[in-house]
Amino acid sequence: MSRVETRLRNNCACPLINVLKPYKHRVLRQHPIHHFIVDFYCHSLKLVIEVKGDSHFVEMAQAYDERRTLISESYGLQVLRFTNQQVLHDFEAVYMEIEALSDVQA
Q1: Which overall architecture, per CATH, does domain 13-105 show?
Q2: Where are the alpha helices (DSSP H) in 1-106?
Q3: How far apart are CA 42 and CA 4, in angstroms?
Q4: What is the average pLDDT across 41-55?
Q5: Pairing verdict, β 78-83 and 28-33
Q6: Which pick of 27, 50, 64, 98 has the fewest CB atoms within 10 Å?
Q7: 4 vs 50 pLDDT, higher one
Q8: Is 46 left (phi over 0), alpha (psi -120 to 50) or beta?
Q9: What is the pLDDT of residues 31-45, one digit of tens each?
Q10: What SS3 class is residue 47?
Q11: Radius of gyration of the chain (CA)
Q12: Residue pLDDT, tens place only, 55-95
């Protein structure tokens, strides 16, 4: 990992990072799957969590995200996608959705 990647990773302001660290299921950040890297991955739940920034709302990026979802699902993984706005301004709802999925799969 380059110095720039390390600095970006360590300085991320995403509140999911701090909440998922002590989570009852181990959640990895920036985990490789196939030929891409997902934002968060939980092996025990077979769950991918993606946080989408503004660049993901253009048509080409949406097609790429859909392709990544299909590839992840082909590995038997479930994909949850949230926007930056959801994570920053409605974090409780985001966390509750993740927690509900955890309770169903437990």
Answers
A1: 3-Layer(aba) Sandwich (3.40)
A2: 3-10, 15-20, 59-74, 84-89, 91-105
A3: 25
A4: 86
A5: unpaired
A6: 64
A7: 50
A8: left
A9: 999 999 999 999 989
A10: strand
A11: 14
A12: 556 778 788 889 999 999 999 999 999 988 888 888 888 88
